[in-house]
């Protein structure tokens, strides 16, 4: 395949992935938006007004970046894990495996599809958040950079989950028992200063803490974590996951007998 | 190696051992010439689908080599895959997608621009009688339509080698005949076809050459004509105009009466059927029709597989 053919293969996968989540928009786009609106109403308006300030900000302004990031993470992940596993389950992944499309193009295609949904939902939620809170963007490059890298990282993680999954139960175990706790404990709703030295230090092993803080810094200018370190961590995890995912596809793990 | 002289498919010492230790292929060799219509026959579990899986890279081989028009499937996988189209045994497309989208996407995976992909999709959907279903979810198609959709999908990048794994399984007779005509037409246009089938009549009607695989080994690899010439005798069913009160006797022809108007007879290859008819006519028996009791290839197939089993049992 020459580069033009590879580009066609890549755009075909991305177009198919976008078409998939747009076709089932009541399942893919509406629920995350409703969930986030509920978070804004309950934690931002109802409870938030009684909490007062967090890290020097009104609570709704503190929590909004974390909620946007939560949407990006869960939607990037769930798009790739459900689409790739669905392709395995129906065996239409074989359409790609018998074709000359290189594995790295397959990987990038699925990841770009996951990022499209993650960033799309993130944009929708950001627009909604403007109704509930006032923002003055602190740093556009930091905001855009970290949200892109986060979406990339969780799209890659979703693909790895899908490769190993043997049932539809297996694609909900990681989001339920790993991803959700990490998000809730990743500084979305509180500053880690509240946790004290020990639990604050334990929180530092949670990669989502770095993403949420960097994104919050980009939006409102406050963070618990060094921003450069946040980018380094997310970059490192993304690179690691990329090579793991590519290696799985190259070996044909659980895809070729 | 130039494309014009390289065989469409060359398999050398192909071995497959699965993780559980089952050896599905025991070092098979197979050559299929360009333009051939080739049958790969064998009982269930013989290794047919494993062979096809390796050819189209869905199964990893343990040892040996496979080349498609001279392109090694490992060293030159991109070129090798451009030359081959596969119709698997099981439905393996997204049941929620429309046939037109399935075809256009498949073309995209081969690097074919969208405009050409759309033209080809229309062409193959029309040829395979699916154009009126192009925009409905593919899960609503009948079994025969789904099978034709998979043929259209395998042809969308216009491969020089088309491999079909049991393409007419579960398809009614009328549809099977129309699929045969379609496959014969694309073979005449130059596409090499390899077919696995349980319908041995299908292999006899369509294919020029055949390999019979059993227990992971090729037990016969020859032309259909040569294979059929190995038959020592054939069993015929004769339908008579008048009801027979008893079974007639003709020397050298062991006749059996099946019912009042039907006779069965075994005829050696060295014998003449004319002599049988002459003898029956002399007894005032008028034969109105005649047919083979079973498919000729089927008899030979069972003989070969039984012989292979016997050899294995004898060590």
Describe this structure in words.
The complex is a heterodimer of chains A (257) and B (315). With 257 residues, chain A is mainly alpha-helical. In chain A, 78% of the residues lie in helices and 2% in strands. Chain A is built from 12 helices and 2 strands; from the N terminus they run ααααββαααααααα. The model of chain A has no long low-confidence stretch (mean pLDDT 89). Chain B has 315 residues and is α/β, with parallel strands linked by helices. Chain B has helices spanning 48-55, 77-82, 99-109, 114-127, 143-155, 173-188, 200-206, 224-229, 273-282, 296-313, and strands spanning 9-17, 23-32, 37-41, 63-68, 71-72, 84-87, 161-165, 192-196, 209-214, 217-223, 233-240, 255-259, 262-268, 287-292. In chain B, the strands form 3 sheets. Chain B has a 6-stranded mixed sheet with strand order 6-7-8-3-9-10, sandwiched between helices. Chains A and B meet through helix 1, helix 5 and helix 6 of A and helix 2 and helix 3 of B.
Report the end-to-end length of chain A measured between terminal Cα atoms. Answer: 25 Å
Task: Report the end-to-end length of chain B measured between terminal Cα atoms.
Answer: 41 Å
Q: Using only CA atoms, what is the Rg of chain A? A: 19 Å
- Tell me the series of helices and strands of chain A, N- to C-terminal: HHHHEEHHHHHHHH
The protein's oligomeric status is: heterodimer
> What's the main sheet of chain A like?
2 strands, antiparallel
Instruction: Give the biggest beta sheet of chain B.
Output: 6 strands, mixed
Low-pLDDT runs of chain B: none
């Amino acid at each position: 395949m020459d580069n033009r053919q590879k580009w066609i293969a890549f755009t075909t996968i991305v177009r198919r992935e976008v078409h998939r989540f747009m076709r089932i928009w009541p399942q893919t786009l509406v629920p995350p938006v409703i969930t986030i609106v509920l978070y804004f109403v309950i934690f931002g308006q109802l409870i938030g007004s009684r909490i007062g300030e967090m890290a020097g900000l009104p609570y709704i302004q503190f929590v909004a970046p974390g909620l946007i990031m939560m949407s990006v993470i869960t939607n990037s992940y769930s798009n790739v894990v459900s689409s790739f596993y669905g392709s395995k389950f129906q065996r239409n992944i074989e359409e790609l495996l018998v074709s000359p499309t290189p594995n790295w193009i397959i990987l990038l295609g699925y990841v770009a599809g996951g990022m499209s949904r993650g960033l799309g939902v993130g944009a929708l939620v950001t627009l909604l958040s403007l109704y509930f809170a006032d923002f003055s963007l602190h740093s556009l490059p930091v905001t855009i950079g970290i949200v892109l890298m986060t979406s990339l990282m969780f799209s890659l993680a979703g693909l790895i989950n899908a490769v190993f999954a043997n049932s539809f139960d297996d694609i909900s175990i990681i989001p339920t028992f790993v991803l959700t706790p990490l998000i809730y404990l990743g500084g979305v709703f509180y500053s880690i200063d509240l946790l004290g030295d020990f639990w604050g230090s334990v929180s530092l092993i949670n990669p989502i803490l770095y993403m949420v803080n960097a994104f919050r810094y980009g939006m409102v200018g406050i963070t618990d974590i060094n921003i450069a370190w946040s980018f380094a961590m997310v970059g490192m995890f993304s690179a690691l996951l990329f090579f793991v995912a590519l290696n799985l596809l190259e070996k044909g793990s659980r895809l070729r007998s | 190696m130039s494309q014009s002289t390289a065989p469409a498919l060359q398999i050398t010492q192909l071995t497959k051992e699965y993780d559980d230790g089952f050896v599905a292929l025991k070092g098979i060799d197979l050559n299929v010439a360009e333009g051939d219509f080739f049958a790969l026959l064998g009982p269930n579990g013989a290794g047919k689908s494993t062979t096809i899986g390796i050819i189209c890279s869905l199964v990893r081989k343990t040892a040996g080599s496979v080349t498609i028009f001279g392109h090694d499937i490992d060293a030159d996988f991109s070129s090798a895959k451009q030359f081959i189209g596969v119709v698997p045994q099981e439905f393996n497309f997204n049941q929620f997608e429309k046939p037109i989208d399935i075809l256009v996407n498949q073309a995209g995976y081969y690097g074919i621009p969208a405009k050409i992909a759309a033209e080809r999709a229309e062409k193959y959907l029309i040829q395979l009688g699916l154009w009126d279903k192009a925009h409905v979810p593919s899960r609503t198609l009948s079994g025969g339509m789904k099978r034709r959709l998979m043929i259209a999908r395998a042809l969308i990048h216009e491969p020089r080698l088309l491999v079909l794994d049991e393409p007419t399984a579960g398809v009614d007779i009328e549809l099977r005949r129309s699929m045969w005509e379609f496959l014969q037409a694309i073979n005449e246009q130059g596409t090499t076809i390899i077919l696995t089938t349980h319908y041995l009549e299908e292999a006899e009607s369509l294919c020029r050459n055949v390999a019979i695989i059993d227990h992971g080994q090729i037990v016969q690899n020859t032309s259909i004509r040569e294979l059929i010439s190995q038959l020592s005798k054939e069993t015929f069913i004769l339908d008579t105009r008048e009801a027979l009160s008893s079974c007639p006797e003709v020397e050298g022809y062991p006749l059996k009466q099946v019912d009042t108007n039907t006779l069965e007879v075994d005829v050696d290859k060295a014998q003449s059927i004319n002599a049988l008819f002459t003898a029956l006519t002399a007894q005032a028996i008028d034969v109105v029709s005649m047919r083979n009791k079973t498919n000729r290839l089927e008899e030979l197939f069972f003989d070969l597989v039984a012989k292979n089993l016997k050899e294995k049992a004898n060590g």
